[in-house]
UniProtKB/TrEMBL annotation, chains A, B:
SUPFAM superfamilies: PurS-like
Subunit and interaction comment: Part of the FGAM synthase complex composed of 1 PurL, 1 PurQ and 2 PurS subunits.
Family: Belongs to the PurS family.
GO molecular function, one term: ATP binding
Protein task: Part of the phosphoribosylformylglycinamidine synthase complex involved in the purines biosynthetic pathway. Catalyzes the ATP-dependent conversion of formylglycinamide ribonucleotide (FGAR) and glutamine to yield formylglycinamidine ribonucleotide (FGAM) and glutamate. The FGAM synthase complex is composed of three subunits. PurQ produces an ammonia molecule by converting glutamine to glutamate. PurL transfers the ammonia molecule to FGAR to form FGAM in an ATP-dependent manner.
Enzyme class: ligase
Gene source species: Nocardioides bruguierae
The keyword Nucleotide-binding is assigned to this record: yes
EC numbers for this chain: 6.3.5.3
Entry keywords, A to Z: ATP-binding, Cytoplasm, Ligase, Nucleotide-binding, Purine biosynthesis
Pathway it works in: Purine metabolism; IMP biosynthesis via de novo pathway; 5-amino-1-(5-phospho-D-ribosyl)imidazole from N(2)-formyl-N(1)-(5-phospho-D-ribosyl)glycinamide: step 1/2
InterPro entries: PurS, PurS-like_sf
Catalytic function, reaction form: N(2)-formyl-N(1)-(5-phospho-beta-D-ribosyl)glycinamide + L-glutamine + ATP + H2O = 2-formamido-N(1)-(5-O-phospho-beta-D-ribosyl)acetamidine + L-glutamate + ADP + phosphate + H(+)
Encoding gene (name): purS
Protein name, entry field: Phosphoribosylformylglycinamidine synthase subunit PurS
Length: 90, 90
C-alpha cells in the first residue's frame, strides 16, 4: 500500500537544541564539514490509495496533529526511493 | 549551500509506540483511512558541497551518531523539493 510521508521541521528562526547538540558532537567524533544541523520528525502514513482528497486529508492531519504550526513547518509527499544515495536496511 | 537529508526510521519489526499513539489519535480527530503510522527522525545537514566523499562521510555519521543500527534503519539523500505535494512554510 502507498506510503505518504510528512516531514516536520523546526522553523528556520526557531532555536533547535537537538540539532545543535548533534552539530557539536560531530567534530568530537572526527567529522568535519557540516556547517549546520536541524533535527525534525518524519511520519510515514500508510494509506489505501493516493488521491488528491487523501493528500488534502494528510495535510490537515499534519497541521492539526503532527506539527505545531507556531514553531514547525511541514511538507507532505508521496514516498519515493529513487533519490536515496546510501542507507542501511539490515 | 546544499542540504543532505538523513531519515532515521524504526525497523519494521520494532514496535513504534509513538507511531501507534498517532494512529490511535487519528480516528478520534475524525480522520479515517490511515492503516499504519511510523514515526522517525529527520536530520538536515548543511554541507559545503555534495561529493561522493561527503555522502560517504554523512552515511558514517548516520550509522554512528544519528541512528541506533540495532533498532533503526537510515537513508541518506540529497534534498529535493520536486515531489512535495503540500506543506506549510509560513
Amino acid at each position: 500500500m502507498p506510503v505518504v510521508v510528512v516531514d516536520v521541521m523546526p522553523k528556520p528562526e526557531i532555536l533547535d537544541p537537538q540539532g545543535k547538540a548533534v552539530q557539536g558532537a560531530l567534530p568530537r567524533l572526527g567529522f568535519a564539514g557540516v556547517s549546520d544541523v536541524r533535527q525534525g520528525k518524519r511520519f510515514e502514513l500508510t494509506v489505501e490509495e493516493v488521491t488528491d482528497e487523501v493528500l488534502a486529508q494528510v495535510a490537515k492531519m499534519a497541521e492539526t496533529l503532527l506539527s505545531n504550526p507556531v514553531i514547525e513547518n511541514f511538507t507532505v509527499r508521496v514516498e519515493t526511493t529513487s533519490e536515496i544515495v546510501a542507507g542501511a536496511n539490515a
